[in-house]
Amino acid sequence: MLGRHTRVFTSACAAASLAVAACGSPQAAPAPASGGAAAPTTPAVAGQAAAPANPNATVIRYALWDSGQQPAYQQCATKFQEQNPNIAIKFEQVGWDDYWSSLQTGFVSGNAPDVFTDHLAKYPEFAAKGQVVDIQPLVEKDKVDTKAYIGALPDLWGREGKR
Fold first, then answer.
1. SS3 assignment, position 3
2. Distance (Å, rounded) from C-alpha 29 to C-alpha 105?
3. pLDDT 10s per residue in the chain (163 long)?
4. For the purposes of burial, counting CB atoms within 10 Å of the CB of 94, is it exposed (0-12), middle (13-18) or buried (19 or more)?
5. CA nearest 21: which of 89, 85, 84, 87?
6. Measured CA distances, 145 to 18, 116, 136, 138, 154 (Å)
7. Stretch (H or E) spanning 9
8. CA–CA separation, 92 vs 58, rounded Å?
């Protein structure tokens, strides 16, 4: 059974993920770099969330591979943080070629980000390994209107009643 702090943290991560994802603009997933060239890896990118005004804020680490999408995610995170001063979102952008292995390393070492941008081709692997949290109970509890998302996008991320 999860402790109270873990449940609160998981709820905060789910809320942040939904809030940030709802603001993001739809874009096709990038293809891996051609010729095996590694995309640049930057653990911290300019424009990431500033230090929280509240030193006791819960910091949510949010990983993504597409630096082109980060400005839109940051804009949403900033608005989210204005409404939720006890939560700070820290972006960690890593290039596509290194992203997936760094996630797996993070899961194995216990240092994975709290929220990460996934890909439909990769999602089944994470779900099968139990490396993602089912947020469907939180969607139901908070009465999230999944019609706010583009087309069938919410359904693409569901499997066997789990989201």
1. coil
2. 22
3. 434 433 444 444 444 444 444 444 333 333 333 333 333 333 334 444 455 567 889 999 999 999 999 999 999 999 999 999 999 999 999 999 899 999 999 999 999 999 999 998 998 888 888 888 899 999 999 999 999 999 998 888 888 888 8
4. buried
5. 89
6. 11, 21, 12, 12, 10
7. helix 4-23
8. 16
Write the single-letter amino acid at 76: C
What SS3 class is residue 40? coil
Token readout for 114 is 């709290």
For 100-126, letters b (16+ CB in 10 Å) and e give bebbbebbeeeebbbbbbbeeeeeeeb
Q: Strand 115-116 to strand 87-93: parallel, antiparallel, or no bridges (unpaired)?
A: unpaired
Query: Is CATH 3.40.190.10 the right assignment for the domain spanning 38-118?
Result: yes
- Three-class HEC string of 106-127: HHHHCCCCCEECCCCCCHHHHH
**Domain ranges for the chain:** 38-118
Provide the token pair at 44: 């911290």
Distance CA 84, CA 47 (A): 19
d(CA 117, CA 115): 7
